[in-house]
Specification:
Layout: H1 2-61, H2 81-85, H3 93-99, H4 103-122, H5 126-144, H6 166-179, H7 189-193, H8 196-200
């Protein structure tokens, strides 16, 4: 009897363990599935932040990419003059020409790039960064004015799409990152949210 009971006892012992193992595996898979989107959004946040930070650094020091060496902001160059003075289509063409090279425009633009970039990389003040970044992207979209097929001098604009361009993609990305609290993963978002002045002013979240 003892010999016949041993397999039954052994089987009765291992069955619950097997079920627990399957439950743990299923739970782990669910956690991994929930975590994957958070890390994907965090990666998008970091890359987008780097885009803004790099633009600030290149325009400040003239690394030879978008800004030629020796023509950086620290060298006396204007971060806005080249772009805004080259606007040649759209309803704000003359307005942008007036703004080109103005000290206040340079400072606002550069502080915007720096602030948005730092906020995204750190994962803090995501709502404010999204608001400021969307406003900046909207102005740059108007400056390039994709709907135009021809420039003010009559030459082809070479626009590839009358509406959607990378400025709108960045704007939507910023809104998504803020709406999903993407700063909480691989960022300081949770710590930032616990600060008293942030708790009292939700728009700073």
């Amino acid at each position: 009897m003892a010999v016949h009971e041993h397999p039954h006892g052994s089987s009765g012992f291992h069955l619950p363990t097997f079920r627990r193992h399957r439950t743990a595996s299923a739970s782990g898979s669910a956690v991994a599935a929930d975590t994957a989107p958070a890390y994907a959004l965090a990666s998008l946040r970091l890359l987008t932040g780097f885009v803004f930070l790099w633009a600030f650094l290149d325009k400040t020091f003239g690394f030879g990419y978008a800004t030629q060496s020796g023509k950086g902001w620290v060298d006396g160059g204007s971060p806005t003059k080249g772009f805004l003075s080259g606007v040649s289509a759209g309803p704000m063409e003359s307005t942008f020409h007036e703004w080109a090279g103005a000290a206040w425009a340079d400072w606002l633009f550069m502080l915007g790039l720096l602030g948005i970039g730092l906020a995204l990389v750190a994962g803090v003040a995501m709502r404010f960064a999204a608001l400021a970044g969307t406003a900046m992207m909207a102005l740059m979209w108007i400056a390039e004015w994709p709907p135009a097929q021809h420039l003010s001098d009559g030459s082809p604009s070479m626009s590839t799409n009358p509406f959607a361009d990378y400025h709108l993609v960045y704007a939507i990305a910023l809104i998504v990152l803020a709406a999903t609290a993407a700063g909480d993963t691989l960022g300081l978002g949770r710590l930032w949210a616990r600060l008293p002045f942030v708790r009292d002013h939700g728009w700073l979240r």
